Amino acid sequence: MSATLHSDEDVARFLREHPEFFASHPELLAGITIPNPHGGRAISLHERQLEVLRDRHRALEMKLAELVRIGQENEAIAERLLRWTRQLLLAGDAAQLPQAVTDGMQAIFSVPHVALRLWGLREPYRHLACAAPVEEDVVTLANSMKHPYCGPNADFQAASWLPEGGAATHSLALLALRKGASAQAFGMLVLGSGDPDRYQVNMGTAFLERINEIASAALSRLVE
After folding, report:
1. Which of 103, 59, 60 is nearest to 84 (CA)?
2. How many helices, marked H, and strands, marked E, lie in the chain?
3. Is the model's pLDDT at 214 over the cut of 50?
4. In this structure, what DSSP letter does residue 202 have?
């Protein structure tokens, strides 16, 4: 009779299904040696098992450290968001809100370049700097946006509102401001940076969306 050949998968399946195998054959467990994956002498199965456990432990430690780092970053951002929201709520005069929004972005969130434009303002607020004329293309863009835009400064007209006409801004975020679920925007908040990697196309926008919602709610007091 010819010997039956077994694949690696067959052997692995057998050992998984028969965990008592090595207990019944202790001489095999003691005698098996396998190549050291890091080179050098052959090691026993026990030593290899310990190395596997150590590698898993190190991988779990690294994953835990990464989760802790992300948690700390999110906590810091949430604390800034709370400070900024409190600052907006404490603005007694609605005319102070545009400045409070932009100042908070710079001072609390460390955004180097910030610009804000609002349209459809109520008469008492039409003298504010944020009421400067806005190109029709910007209004059309704002109305079409469902989420904040993050990415390179691709010569957006809204970028021209930033310092130096946006020449020093290499990445930006565009936030269209709306009253609740309205399809029509009433403004746009522009956040810019000289760092081309500050705002990236594939970055998460969860906190920017919270900023967008809070800014929209606060500034809606100024529009018709």
Report:
1. 103
2. 7, 6
3. yes
4. T
